[in-house]
Design brief:
alpha+beta, 9-stranded antiparallel β-sheet, Alpha-Beta Plaits, single chain, about 475 residues
């Protein structure tokens, strides 16, 4: 057992959480965790099935005397976002997550923790194993590739699930019941790479933005966090006025994460070097003044590099179109909800930029709980790409989940929380993509709520789970299962 979880309660949950932390599970590489779940079900004598996409359902019979109770499905996704600090050596395809206890939180050593959605997976595994619990017939649905496009939910075989009550265990605020979510769509711009030789009288320089917090592009889009791509581009535009030529630019690595770092390789006339260094120092001070309260570790730097033999830079007009597109591209909150106070209705995130041998790609992600507003912000992004001369690639997208405040399972959950803790659970919608909207389309008539323990800074190496919230969340899950 990991020392980080020693003595933590509930023991079933934390032991299962530590077990799955040892199993690599990036999106698209869930084979090992899937095999682990199937093997665990076999060890426990439980029936399991898998659809063509790879989604897994494990079925646990009702406890004695509860056979006639309506069945409940507990749902979580197997994959995790893989982010790490730039100085951290970690292979997400091979290495286990290193758990670290830090005060009242469990976190990881320089990487994402995987509590999104490892907390839900651990909950299901623990309930599968614990034979002392009271419940009706249970199903445990484990889906694939939620973080990179909700693939598992989109391709779920409806015959896999018999229950018509679903507890989605993929939310991040203990004491909050989510009953609706935003729909979303990715929009990409691609430019064909056209290059020319780097200027002969130029110094090779690396322009870097790092030290930002990053975070979930839905849940934390309203926090005012810095966007590394946008910040670096502001500096790049100023340096271009001195003759800087762009050789490569790479920033962000997940469509649903606010980019924390961005790096560009430049060639600048040597005579302009001192002026460029002074400009970057001035911009660093400006950026810190703008963001010091929320991004205290922000660092903009310009460092000399060895010039590569035969170095190439982007053709000048391509560099201009790319940089102006990034400058024009919106990122952040576009509209707050008029119906639910404090809820972000519509947003867009400038997520990833990368230069390859053949093309440059810029990835954005739009979200909205209103279908027409989602279409509008996608059209805005597409128009900017078109003006910048990019070929546009539109993602398939995913639906939102319309709140149902008359939901029967919502009423049960509210009563359970009230009886356990003497206070009301909050009922909210969330500005993030949950699988509930898709599952509701795939399986009509499904009555759903979403909840979980308290997580912070998901999709970043600062991700952490509040230890005390897990006990309350665990007792709440069990009370719901006992009360259905």
């Amino acid at each position: 057992m990991s020392e980080a979880i020693e003595g933590l309660k509930p023991e079933f949950f934390w032991r299962c959480f530590a077990e799955i932390a040892r199993i690599p599970r990036p999106s698209g590489h869930e084979e090992a965790i899937g095999e682990f779940i199937l093997e665990r079900a076999k060890e426990l004598g439980l029936r399991a099935a898998q659809d063509a996409c790879g989604n897994i359902v494990v079925k646990k019979p009702a406890s004695p005397g509860r056979e006639s109770v309506r069945g409940v499905c507990l749902q979580s996704h197997l994959d995790m976002v893989c982010e790490k600090n730039s100085d951290k050596r970690h292979d997400f395809l091979k290495d286990p997550i290193e758990l670290v206890r830090n005060g009242g939180f469990l976190t990881a050593n320089g990487t994402t923790l995987g509590a999104d959605n490892g907390a839900g997976v651990a909950t299901s595994l623990a309930i599968m194993e614990d034979r002392s619990l009271q419940h009706g017939p249970l199903e445990f649905l484990f889906t694939l590739e939620e973080e990179t496009g909700l693939k598992g939910a989109k391709h779920l075989d409806p015959a896999l699930v018999e229950s018509r009550i679903l507890l989605n265990l993929d939310s991040e605020d203990e004491g909050v019941l989510f009953v609706g979510c935003a729909g979303g769509k990715d929009t990409l711009g691609r430019w064909q790479m056209t290059a020319e030789s780097a200027p002969a009288d130029a110094a090779a320089l690396c322009l870097t933005v790092k030290g930002l917090k990053g975070g979930h592009s839905g849940l934390e889009i309203d926090k005012g966090l810095g966007n590394a791509i946008k910040l670096l581009n502001r500096a790049l535009l100023r340096l271009a006025e001195m003759g800087a030529r762009l050789s490569s630019i790479d920033g962000g690595n997940m469509r649903n994460a606010i980019p924390r770092e961005c790096r560009a390789l430049l060639y600048l006339p040597i005579r302009q070097l001192a002026e460029a260094e002074a400009l970057v120092a001035k911009l660093q001070a400006s950026f810190q003044a703008e963001l010091s309260r929320i991004e205290p570790d922000l660092l903009l730097s310009l460092t000399r590099q060895d010039a590569a033999p035969g170095a190439q830079v982007l053709e000048a007009s391509l560099q201009g179109r790319l940089c102006r597109t990034i400058a024009a591209m919106p990122t952040g909150v576009q509209q707050m909800s008029a119906d639910i106070p404090g809820l972000v209705e519509t947003s867009t995130n400038l997520a990833v930029v990368g230069t390859g041998q053949q093309e440059i790609v810029l990835i954005t992600s739009q979200r909205s709980s209103v279908g027409s507003r989602l279409a509008e912000v996608v059209e805005t992004v597409e128009a900017i790409f078109e003006l910048g001369g990019a070929a546009i690639e539109a993602g398939v997208g995913y639906p939102g989940w319309k709140p149902n405040l008359d939901s029967a399972i919502l009423q049960v959950a509210k009563q359970c929380y009230r009886s356990l803790y003497g206070q009301e659970a909050e009922v909210k919608a969330i500005h993030a993509g949950l699988e509930c909207g898709i599952i509701g389309e795939r399986i009509p008539g499904m009555d759903m709520i979403s909840f979980g323990p308290t997580l912070q800074s998901v999709h970043s190496p600062d991700e952490r789970i509040e230890i005390d919230s897990v006990g309350k969340y665990w007792d709440f899950v069990l009370e719901i299962l006992k009360s259905v």
